[in-house]
Amino acid sequence: MTDDITKHSETFTIRASEVGSGGQITLPALCSLFQEVAGNHAHKLNFDITQLHEQDLTWVLHRMDIRIERYPNWREKITVETWPAAGDALRAYRDYRILDEEGEQIGACLSYWMMINLKTRKPTRMPQEVLDLRLSELDHVMPVKSDRMNPFEESDVAKKFVVRKSDLDMNEHVNNARFVEWLMETYDDDKAYLIKNMDIMFMRESHSGDMITSERKNLEHQNYRHQLTNQDGDVLALATCS
User: What angle do the packed helices 27-44 and 176-184 form, to 10 degrees?
Assistant: First the structure.
């Protein structure tokens, strides 16, 4: 990566609080690192959440397509690189690469974002100064997807959760990493690290006190479908894993 302000990287040492029983970082913890570097980079570019709130605007994550080649271990150092990529006036993309200490890629993520008006809670056009900062000459870390996922009726595994205040972020709704955490709760610990690909779509907000049902449907060849619903049956998130 260069010193161009539109590209950003941070180095982390994997902490004990971020690993599971096998001593490797969990997928939700990696999603939290993605969020950390994205927020820090957006602040550097003058369009992070706190700055947008002054204009009654905020970022909303719509989709994350994640590929893990190797989960880093406790105390291992990794570097997360990120950059915003061109989309259109309503959609934006942000790419991530996870590098080990030798600079080898061990994971990647392509995230899809929208900007919403805090008063109407509806998507809005991005300010021109935001559009001007997005890169167009770099390839995405993986292809952009336009397909949609559909809910399913019958599940093989289901878990229930009550949303806590600690699950909320600065937008006063559930943090995206919590959605990933709830999906992964449907796996045994030794199976969670077999998941190397997750494509998750965030459909609806969730708030403190909601009752969440996390469901998994088993497909052939170790492929899985997931959905999160609330107490009213509203679909909050859909995902595919393999």
Answer: 170
User: Distance from first CA to last CA of the chain, Å, rounded?
Assistant: 30
197, pLDDT greater than 60: yes
* Closest alpha carbon to 109 in 122, 92, 95, 99: 95
Specify the 3-state DSSP secondary structure of 27.
Answer: helix
Q: Strands, E, within the chain: which ranges?
A: 8-13, 57-68, 77-85, 92-99, 105-117, 157-162, 197-202, 211-218, 224-229, 235-241
CB 62 within 8 A of CB 116: no
- Which of 64, 71, 31 has the alpha carbon at shortest distance from 190? 71
Nearest one of 84, 145, 141 to 107, comparing CA atoms: 141
The pLDDT value given to residue 1: 39
Kindly write down the DSSP assignment for every residue of 50-83, as one continuous string: HHHHTTTEEEEEEEEEEEES-PPBTT-EEEEEEE
Cβ neighbours of residue 119 closer than 8 Å, sequence gap 6 or more: 56
Question: How far apart (Å, rounded) are the C-alpha atoms in residues 40 and 204?
Answer: 25
- Please say if the pLDDT value at position 131 is more than 90: no
Per the CB < 8 A criterion, the answer to whether 92 and 134 are in contact is: yes
* pTM for this entry: 0.89
Residue 109 contacts residue 64 (beta carbons within 8 Å):
yes
pLDDT band at 67 (very low <50, low <70, confident <90, very high): very high
